[in-house]
Amino acid sequence: QVQLVESGGGLVQAGGSLRLSCAASGSTFSLNNFGWYRQAPGKQRELVAVIRSDGVINYADPAKGRFSISRDGAKNLVYLQMNSLKPEDTAVYYCYGEVVVGNLGYDYWGQGTQVTVSS
């Protein structure tokens, strides 16, 4: 089991920045993919960015060039630096962790943190 706790959401004006943090606890030794998804009202949850345990990063197109993900493996933390925020970035941001056991991957989610970007 892995527990994920996010922090850092809030209200920001368009063009501003926010930094999200997520702390993982529990069975983190097998934590592989670690990162962020988001869900806007009336929309499906979508990938923002994830970073693999070997450092490979995957950004969704809306995040490229504006967001930066980083990971502190020793402290089981993942960060999402969001710059040049737009109103369409408004969503609940969920921390995501994948634990690999043998050939199986298990997904874990945080409770979500609200990010609101005003125009």
Please describe what this structure looks like:
The protein has about 120 residues and is mainly beta. Helices cover about 0% and strands about 60% of the residues. The protein has strands at about 1-5, 10-15, 20-25, 30-40, 45-50, 55-60, 65-70, 75-80, 90-100, 105-110, 115-119. The strands form two sheets. Strands 2, 4, 5, 6, 9, 10 and 11 form a seven-stranded mixed β-sheet that branches. It starts with a strand and ends with a strand. The mean pLDDT is about 95.
**In total, how many beta strands?**
11
> How does the helix and strand content classify structurally?
mainly beta
Note the total helix count: 0
Report on the biggest sheet: 7 strands, mixed
What fraction, in percent, of the residue positions are helical? under 10%
Mean pLDDT: 95
Specify the overall morphology. elongated
Enumerate the spans where pLDDT stays under 50 for 5 or more consecutive residues.
none
The sequence of SSEs as H and E is: EEEEEEEEEEE
Strand portion: over 45%
The gyration radius over C-alpha positions equals 14 Å
| Cα distance spanning the termini | 40 Å
Task: Characterize this entry briefly.
By secondary structure, the protein is mainly beta. It has no helices and eleven strands.
Task: Note the main attributes of this structure.
seven-stranded mixed sheet, 11 strands, mainly beta, elongated, single chain
Layout: helices, strands, pairs:
Layout: E1 2-7, E2 10-13, E3 18-26, E4 31-39, E5 46-51, E6 57-59, E7 67-72, E8 77-82, E9 91-101, E10 104-109, E11 113-118
Parallel strand pairs: 2-11
Antiparallel strand pairs: 1-3, 3-8, 4-5, 4-9, 5-6, 7-8, 9-10, 9-11
